[in-house]
Write a structure and sequence with these properties.
The structure holds two protein chains of two kinds. By secondary structure, chain A is α+β, with helices and mostly antiparallel strands. Chain A has 17 helices and 22 strands. In chain A, helix 14 (about 390-490) packs across helix 17 (about 605-615). The chains are: A alpha+beta, B alpha/beta.
Amino acid sequence: MNQPPRFPGLEDLLTKAIDATALSIIETMREPLLVLGADMRVERANRSFYAAFNLSPENTLGRFLHEIADHTWDIEPLRRLLVDILPKNTSVDDFELEYRPREGKPRLLLLNARRIVRAGDDGKGWILLAIEDSTDRRNLDVLRENEKRYRTLADSLPQLVWTCLPDGALDYTNTRWTEYTGLPSEALLGNRWRDTMHPTDRKDTYERWIEALKGNVTYDLEYRLRRHDGKYRWFKVRAVPLRGKDGEIIKWFGTSTDIDEQMTAQHLVEESERWLQLIMHSVQDFAILTLDHEGMVSSWNSGAEAMFGYAEEEILGRPAALLFTPEDRDNGVPNREMETARREGASLDERWHQRKDGDRFFSSGTLRVIRDETGELRGFTKVVRDITDWKRQQQELQEARDSLEMMVEERTAQLQDTVQQLETFSYSVSHDLRGPLRAMLGFAEVLREDFGPELGATGGEYLGRIISAAHRLDRLINDILLYSRTARANLLLHPVDLEKVVADAIREEPSFQPPRAEVEVVHPLPHVIGHDASIMQCLVNLLSNAVKFVPPTRLPKIKISAEKTGDTVRLTVEDNGVGIAQDDTKRIFRLFERLHPSENFEGTGIGLTIVRKAVERMGGQVGVSSTEGEGSRFWIQLKAAP
Amino acid sequence: MITPPRILLVEDDENDVFFFKRAFESAGIPINLEVATDGRRALAILRGEAVYARRDIHPMPSLVLLDLKIPYMPGLEVLRQIRASKEMAKVIVIILTSSAMESDLKAAYELGANSYLVKPSLQEDRKELAKLIARYWLEKNQV
């Protein structure tokens, strides 16, 4: 009992209530202890209490708990707990409490309280309050907790997280590292991790890494690390140093971020940009340039340089209007072109451009707007092609065309002249040949009329031959004229009623009518598209042949019929004449062809040629089928009238 | 006594003149024929100029048979001048020529020819033509 008895009453009480052993235990306890009375006055406090809370017995003993230490012990929850201990014989176990002194840091206290009773006392008992300052212990726990938390955090990050010593030796890797490399942590720690770096990157990276470790440069590196499957992927590696009091680096905290996809994407973008540039500059036949939204040149390919004569550095940033001729510039053509492109998306044009040296060339060009995803105008692309040669060729072609046209006109005029001459010639033939012929024929007839009896039988026969020959020549001339007229005449085609034309044709010659011939018409006959006089001519010629080429003993019987197939009409003239051998059916339509000697059948050999020519001029066809000795079927085919 | 119709034959071919006269004769049609061997003379006769001034000897013809290919003045020009003058405008003009060239045919009708005939080659046809002219143009046709 080396504690001086300050309060004789308490000494007495203690003497009664607690034995010396108990007191010495309290005193020797390292933890602060308080003994409180039922009225919460401090009955006893040990040294450790005074030391821990910087108090003395004078300002502690006999005072209410909530008064001491400048009321800092006035803690409501604590009071509620303590109040229950004596009456209800409860206890307080490991009650955690944050104690806030007037000065200094808050402290974390762990309180335990019990009711203590001594036999012979009034039975109320005292409260023994043991105080444990767990502030320091708690801090360590927090540290541990924090570390655990940070490691979990580090493991949850997608990056490879690590720490290393100033010399670069790795002393921590997160699980991403081991997962990524497929190696246990031990295989990475120290400098062993460097084996996972891509051999190509090692040398270059190593030097920069050494510099970074010294803290001279930012620890910001990119290198490839080998994945568990042997593939290397790009990582961006960053680290921050933890420095000591004197600024020396104690440790590095670092992350390695997988940027392989970005690198690949970036690589692709760079590659495609490079490719685009390559293409643009390899195009020599086209000038490709871009303009900004104000019409200033913003890019220029080598084709443009070759075409306009400006080097890239000369023209960049200058107005594209420079490329136009001064006249076009004065007329505001460059602005109008941009305006059109802005309004319609593109402006296509062919025009003269001017080179740097003043020479001009003719070009075909397109100005197109460039808009970004939002529709904002970013500028223009202009593609220009030199078509001077092409234009010159066009011009030459046009000139050649013109001269050809002129030549054609000349030739046509010549041809028309020739036709005119031919016409005059045929007129001459008809007029001048027929005059003398007519005289010969006429006088031969007169001779027969006036002097017939005097000539005698033989003289009469000779005269008859003269007349017959002259007459044939006359008809020949006539037919030639008719043929040439048929071949030349402008036929105005129109609907023609075959009924009428056939009737007219039959009426034309007595030889087509009874008793000299029988003509049967199969009604009705349709309308065709043709030229009535020409159809009439054809029918007369066909009927002439039909009645002519018949054996003398046979009465000519003719059947005229028509058949409409689709939009064509075939008019057939069928006779009972001598017929035509199969081999001859083509020949008979040719000029001057005759199948029969003129002694047997009179004719000029032109009749069917006229028919063929006339039908052809009406856009139709002509043909014949025949059985020799029995008759022929001549047909002409024309377009049906609608 | 009926005066035979006065016909002007414009024809330079003697043979044709001969055949023409003979055709009318053999058809039994009396005519008062005047022959002009060229275009100018034909117009002189029609206008009653110079030696043809005396209408009692050279009366105004009522019918002109006009060849197209004649000396000095082509038949078509003669026709044009006939139709251009008041005095001669009403005279019947029949073109009688060797060939029916389309351009001539068209021009003749455009210039006011009354008819266009091709000279027949046979005497029989000529006789027929003479009859037709007489019957149609000299008897039936109303001027």
